[in-house]
Amino acid sequence: MRGSVRAPPSKSYTHRAVLAAGYADGATVRNPLDSADTRATARAVEAFGGTVERGDDAFVVEGFDGRPDTPEDVLDCANSGTTMRLTTATAALGSGLTVLTGDGSLRSRPQGPLLDALADLGARAESTRDDGRAPLVVGGHIDGGEVAIPGDVSSQYVTALLMAGAVTETGVGVELTTELKSAPYVDITLEVLRDFGVEAEATDDGYRVPGGQTYAPAGGEYAVPGDFSSMSYLLAAGALAADGELTVLGARPSAQGDSAIVDVLSRMGAPLDWDREAGEIAVSRADLAGVEVDVGDTPDLLPTIAALGAAADGTTRITNCEHVRYKETDRVSAMADELGELGAVVEEEHDTLVVRGGESTLRGGTVSGHDDHRIVMSLALCGLVADGDVTVEGADHVDVSFPGFFGTLRDLGADVTEQA
Ligand SMILES: O=C(O)C1=C[C@@H](OP(=O)(O)O)[C@@H](O)[C@H](O)C1
Ligand SMILES: C=C(OP(=O)(O)O)C(=O)O
């Protein structure tokens, strides 16, 4: 493989910018990610009374100005946890009831702590099956207050409360009752809020957002940076299989914790150069060595690092990963099962995944993508080095965050065949 490629726009920033534009009078979101997940957030903004015109280079959003309508129909969040968490808090601002649901994966993911927090703030926030999972029924009206919430299930609860809290009367204070996992995602939220002219801050025990604020980005526009989680697959592909240089464009520094992939790959021994000002990362192939990585801040990197570990010499130990079990699928167990299927020696503990790699151990085979975009993309990486073809089932799920993934791999020189 070799060549240069532009990273897809960030999914996390696109979700936030589209919803922030919804909370505003409106805004133009430049360089948005147009994927299944971000379309779910766009649909939610429309259900709450806004409009989203999706063009090639921009989404033009007319907002609902901090006062969401009661949706005419059930809100289908599809596969997107971010959409469901962030818009559950939006629904608590309205006067009527909103019903939120999603696909089988999303209906299995935990929403209980956010429902409890919204109920503590005075909303009606229920799980129809009373198990803390969607379908959810949520209605208002919250006008602010203090709330306590655990931080070790999903940081998206905090993001949801801060984004909605800004348009409540009195604001919202969030006290974390445990350590916060995935903390850089809240930093992304604070960055987007700041860029939309909304004040919010970290406090000694959590976060606080004053109420009565108006969302409005400078010049009515917001530009989305490149996505470091998506870049992780491209950079890993380069480290595994680029005989010349593979360059990823659109890699300017931002609040994304997943830029840690650059450090992980360097520690594994990949020759890598990040020109931060130009936003370009160049990488080429090397024999990789196993490393220890704490993914407390970077859960979405676990599948990528596990796949790299299977191709690296020695042991890769991924720690602090319990929260990675609450994603589209239990990604700790999914990667353990599928890498094992390809011949890697993997040990799974509740909070740790150990991969004993060595390129020669990876063989071809057919593996399940677990209907999870990140599992699909990570297993595809194994195909670049395995001794035989790797067939990944359910490959169309890349549409969730990186619709052009396989075409991009092919453009860079990988041999990719799609089967119906
Ligand atoms: O807020 C976000 O944009 C995200 C937060 C993370 O989830 P958790 O906070 O649930 O770990 C991450 O895994 C997800 O892909 C996107
Ligand atoms: C977990 C993810 O997203 P979400 O929580 O929005 O479904 C992801 O993209 O890996």
From TrEMBL:
Enolpyruvate transferase domain boundaries: 2-409
Chain segments annotated as transmembrane: none
Matches recorded under SUPFAM superfamilies: EPT/RTPC-like
Binding site for 3-phosphoshikimate: 11-12, 16, 154-156, 182, 300, 327
Enzyme Commission number(s) of this protein: 2.5.1.19
GO biological process, one term: aromatic amino acid family biosynthetic process
CDD domains in alphabetical order: EPSP_synthase
Listed InterPro entries: Enolpyruvate_Tfrase_dom (IPR001986), Enolpyruvate_Tfrase_sf (IPR036968), EPSP_synthase (IPR006264), EPSP_synthase_CS (IPR023193), RNA3'P_cycl/enolpyr_Trfase_a/b (IPR013792)
Known pathway: Metabolic intermediate biosynthesis; chorismate biosynthesis; chorismate from D-erythrose 4-phosphate and phosphoenolpyruvate: step 6/7
Any Gene Ontology CC annotation: cytoplasm
Subcellular location: Cytoplasm
Positions that bind phosphoenolpyruvate: 11, 81, 109, 156, 331, 374
Main function: Catalyzes the transfer of the enolpyruvyl moiety of phosphoenolpyruvate (PEP) to the 5-hydroxyl of shikimate-3-phosphate (S3P) to produce enolpyruvyl shikimate-3-phosphate and inorganic phosphate.
Record family assignment: Belongs to the EPSP synthase family.
Protein name as it appears in the record: 3-phosphoshikimate 1-carboxyvinyltransferase
Gene source species: Halosegnis marinus
